[in-house]
Amino acid sequence: MLEFIDKTILMDSKGIHRALTRIAHEIIEKNKGVDDVVLIGIRTRGVPLAERLSNAIKKIENIDVPVGMLDITLYRDDLSTLAYQPVIRETKFPCDINRKTIILVDDVLYTGRTIRAALNALTDLGRPHVIQLAVLIDRGHRELPIRADYVGKNVPTAAKEVISVQLETTDKTEQVIIREPVSKK
Fold this sequence. Notes:
Elements: E1 4-12, H1 13-30, E2 37-42, H2 46-61, E3 67-70, E4 101-109, H3 113-125, E5 130-138, E6 150-154, E7 162-166, H4 168-171, E8 175-181
Parallel strand pairs: 2-3, 2-4, 4-5, 5-6
Antiparallel strand pairs: 1-8, 7-8
């Protein structure tokens, strides 16, 4: 089992809040408002981030943007290589996603494989007008031609490093940190 140590704090709770507020403004501007916009969080940390974006948009536009959650477990391209029995969680949309502007929300964009799985899942469940991507952290190292429309922070990383997004709702703390493997002697 690989062990990691905390290397650098990239964002504290205020930094996360500022990034999400900026992304909310960018979503409103790019879409000329939020009519027909639906935020879909990718489980696990994409869901609370989508809820926070919805709250930020509400403060700016005084409009409730619906939030859904998407489980991509069965769409992963490494499902057959996982040694454990996968846990399937709920996928729940607040409305029909056909002809809507869907904004997929995730915590970290890395290889692009999670987003590819999410796109496959979404298109199996409906035909949105457009799909956009919002991520808190883009760390590079793409393996697929996928890019985010909205990014909280671009962070160049080494492939061996891990970005850990910790949110109060899931982790009882609020920060984004870079972790690196501990070398065993």
